Amino acid sequence: MQDRRADFALPGAQSALLFETPAEIYARVFRALRPRTSLPEFRVEFCRFANADSFIRLEDGRVHVRITDLLEGAPAPVQEALAYILIGKLFRRPIPRLYTHRYRLYLNRRDMRRQMHLVRQMRGRKFVSGPVGKHRNLEEVFEQLNARHFHGLLGRPRLGWSRRPSRSMLGHFDPSHNAIIISSIFDDPNVPLLTLEYVLFHEMLHLRFPVDHSGARRRVHTREFRAAEREFPYLKEAKEMLKKL
Fold first, then answer.
1. What's the pLDDT tens digit per position in 73-94?
2. Strand pairing partners for 159?
3. pTM of the shown model
4. Which residues make Cβ contacts (< 8 Å) with residue 198, sequence separation at least 6?
5. Alpha helices per DSSP H over the chain
6. From the candidate CATH numbers 3.30.2010.10, 3.90.550.10, 3.30.300.10, 3.40.640.10, the one assigned to the domain spanning 138-244
């Protein structure tokens, strides 16, 4: 089995990367992307974020970079790739695929995914209202769908309604907190029950078919997922109803 750490190995000429500080890496990448612009001061810090997030901003001639502490021990080429991504976004420059691929490949490693999962569990806060809404009970709908489509074998996660009736985020499954959150727009007797059933069924499929990780790719909706989704009765009608919400 190939050791993926070799993807981040440094050939001789690039070994100088190993001796650069994070601020020096960002300064070098800045010069490469904006050679005619005077070099600002860089401040780079690693922070205890709940996710693998990183942020950059330019303020008063100084560039502030805040990086998840999950990457504090990342190889120098990965730090360089993130620098190209963040500075490219800051100045709306196209980011070479080489760097996005390298960064995604590192985050997609099994050990990194395990660390990110644990960090989200320990540091993240998840508001879950509970299944009982003003008009509908998610637990009842879940058990009906479970019996109908999963032979009653799907373990029930935490269920809750969103705080606001979102029309853009109709539902989502959070594997780190084992929770399904459904938009409270469906907690309304005037909204067809079929739409709620379909959205909840879709999120239940995420329990049944976890995200597939391969190399730098992260596939949320696999072929198996899509095939199972097509088995939902009145699928076309449900989607048409959702368009009218």
1. 899 999 999 999 999 999 999 9
2. 180
3. 0.60
4. 232, 235, 238, 239, 242
5. 22-33, 76-90, 97-107, 110-123, 138-149, 193-208, 223-229, 235-244
6. 3.30.2010.10
